[in-house]
What we know:
This protein is an all-alpha fold. 50% of the residues lie in helices and 3% in strands. The chain is built from eleven helices and three strands. It has helices spanning 37-47, 54-68, 81-108, 135-163, 176-201, 204-209, 230-236, 250-267, 289-297, 309-312, 321-336; strands at 3-5, 273-275, 282-285. Strands 1-3-2 form a three-stranded antiparallel β-sheet, with no helix packed on it. Helix 3 (81-108) runs antiparallel to helix 4. It is globular, with a radius of gyration of 20 Å.
Amino acid sequence: MTLESTKPEVTVPGKSTWNYHPDLPLQDRSLFNVKGGPIAGLTLLWNSWLPISDRLLVLGVSFLTWFYLSPSLETARNFAFNWIAAVYLRNVALMVLVAGGMHLYLYTFKRQGNHFRYDARPFQRKNSLYTFNNQFLDNVFWSIASGVTIWTAYEVVGLWVYANGYVPILNFSDHPGWFIIWCVFLPIYGVFHFYWIHRLLHWGPLYNRVHSLHHRNVNVGPWSGMSMHPVEHIGYLSSVLIHVVIPSHPIHFIFQLQQKVLLAITSHAGYETVTAGEDSDAGLKVGDFFHQLHHRYFECNYGEPEVPCDKWFGTFHDGTEEATARTRARLKEMRKK
């Protein structure tokens, strides 16, 4: 999540499985690590935002979106084609800018080669598993046709709800402390929500009919993050419904949607860090090997490291061969039921 210098690839056990991976076993990076104590948790929280992170960048984009690229609440009181279309086109532009930009840099122009890339295998082509028989085109289609459409629908309805006073608005001028705390809390809540929605999507009927579309991507790229079935997009983005219960500002609402969408893109980049080239070790940390393991082994690491649901419920994979054996044994048992 942060701008940092990371170690170059080295030969380590399991190297043949991955082109690159961080030091194994993966350490507990939970904000609720009891052994580390509250100071360790607060340090991790601080480092997830500062000095610079993809999360902080998205928050900045959310402020710019609200002040310069969103309809006024007066305009949003009534549904109208003009402002709804403007929100949709803005979201398409954001999706293309982030996912398309990362894909061009990392995979088309290959500006950093396979440096910090987890899985160096090429994306699938001429494979009937994918829409258009092509993994890249499949991912782009589902990300825009379903992802942007449902993202925009949530945002449009949300702005309409705020505009008509159906939920109270939390203004910075009235409650600056709560305004800032809400920005920090939303991503943590989103992680907790994601774990349970994700577990539900791995339930047999839902997995086969819905979530398997996303899991076509064993080897992921930027366009894979939001390549989902419409039902999954509805569930994945439903964390914004908390704004109906707790007072917030439209900036919080937009931020929650954008961080769910844009950070799904960056976390599926396939690279741990985006650098200034093959010879650089410093850059913006974007990918997460924790989730990369989920795409490889399926029945593990359903959540994210910040909230240790996978440790609490026995689905944590730390990247070692022992953890892989346990995961495969659990999957075998699940298939028997």
